[in-house]
Amino acid sequence: MHALRVHSLDGWDISLDEVAVPVPDPGELLVRSEAVGLCGSDVHACRGDAGYEWMRPPVTLGHETVGTVIGQHPDLEQDWVGTRIAMIAIQGCLNCEICAAGQVNYCAERTCLGLHSDGGLAEFFTIAAQRVVAIDPDLDLGLAGLHEPVAIVLHALEALPDSLEGASVGVTGPGTIGLISAMECQRRGANVTIYGRPDADEIRLTCAEKLGLAVGRSQETAPADYWVEASGSADGLNRAIRACANQARIAVPGLFGRLPEVEMNLLVRGGMSLHGSYGYRTEHFHRAAEFIDEQQDDLARMVSSYPLERAEEALRNTAAGQIIKAIVTPGQALGGQMIIKNNHEKAGVQ
Fold it and tell me: Which pTM does this prediction carry?
């Protein structure tokens, strides 16, 4: 089968390789990969940015992945075959106090499939059954691939009130996370303005306008009661700090490619709080399904689909800001089907 793999952290050392179809270990499922979203984390990994030194290439990318289960290890009691699933890529050890408290995304031993170990940007992948959630089998694949980013947003926005009626909210970064954050804040009743760089984000800002969002293209920034920093840039974070009211909360789901210089004195004197947010919990995937169902038409505006053989092109277009959300659809190879049959008969896989 084919898989897109990062071979080193030297910068764009990636290729579409021919690799063996995996056989599930105890507790694992074999999944036909159907849709894989690409995000900033994938770009950081491909560029070898700061903060990704823990990666151990070669590794197959793909953590925003959905697919259909086509096999499973015989030790699993539940029959998963035929179920469409979303990958819960970020998960902890499940044995520590933090995990027991339900905060698996903040476990010191957490891993992210597609970065720590092989992910779903391949024709087939294996995954532990405890790291999947069943999703609507009839949902359009481009939308199905959005479960993970929506879950990230819903987790991040727990830092803000459930009701934002009449509040002003600023958002920096008009990528997928920023746009979905803005949509959810607006759904909660906020007056939202999303900001981007007119020289680099025009495609994304135009999409924001089509979504009915107010757009800030200039250096002027409206005062805000709350903020979502999704750009992963020092300029975006400092724009939030300068614009926010005293004691404002700033949710930060964006990861930074380099350490930012932060206007800490303004932050301190304003009594503001930065709320870093990483990952999600399983419950956020169930809420994400409801959001996707309600917002299908608007979410579809963000998606650009690519076959697996054009996955590197999709990554580079994502890095250049030429698209909003790349969804790679690996499909199914006839040769892969035959390999699966032979390998799984030998391994005793159901």
Answer: 0.92
